[in-house]
Amino acid sequence: MIKGFLFDLDGVIVDTAVFHFQAWRQLAQKLGGDFTEEQNEQLKGVSRVDSLKKIIEWTGATVSDEEFQTLMVEKNEWYLELVQGLGPQDALPGALNFLQTAYDQGIKIALGSASKNAPMILEKLGITPLFTAIIDGNNVVNGKPHPEVFLKGAEALGLEPSECVVFEDSIAGVQAAKTGGMSSVGIGDAETLQADIHFTALGDTTPEALVAHF
Fold it and tell me: Do residues 175 and 158 make contact, with C-beta atoms less than 8 angstroms apart?
């Protein structure tokens, strides 16, 4: 019996991925290189540290440990500037209604995101009260595809992994759900994500339908 929903943030509830892409690209250009939107897909669901490592590899740059830390801070500052105007109107189609419906039906809800800015984004969307637990980049050691973020989410909800469904738009996130013994809903391309079931947006399904499906 499914009792809990664990949500990724970017690309599932709200699309801040474009802001991450713009900030990372600005950083890559500062390092004397660049990267494509296709390469950016590899950064989805990945921690800031691992994302920066990939960009350094792509640009061929050499940075010291101190410079690495500075670059991470700079990227986050650029990102935060871009998301200042974010609000409920920026939620992805049907996402807020889906979350409210699940909450009203007594389904436990947690966030499992690599983003350390997740609490701030939830506040801007006005949905923080719907979440029993928020597990983000501040709470985990291992990034996706390691299942730590979702296992901690299930634990925080007082549920077994088998009682939880993970909602993800990244390959790494779906892999984390599967490794953690959870069912998965892919938001995006079915062939790419290889989740248990797929939709283009949360608005394309309902909590009742998913509980019945699993």
Answer: no
Give the rounded percent of residues in the chain with a pLDDT score beyond 70. 100
Reply yes or no on whether the pLDDT at 104 is more than 90: yes
Q: Is 50 a catalytic residue?
A: no
Give domain 4-15+88-213's CATH superfamily.
HAD superfamily/HAD-like (3.40.50.1000)
The 10 Å Cβ neighbour count of residue 41 is: 15
Architecture category of domain 17-82 in CATH? Orthogonal Bundle (1.10)
pLDDT, one tens digit per residue, over 6-61 is 999 989 999 887 888 999 999 999 999 999 888 988 887 788 899 999 999 999 99
Check if 10 is active-site.
yes
Q: Where are the domains of the chain?
A: 4-15+88-213, 17-82
Which is the catalytic residue, given 8, 136, 169, 196? 8
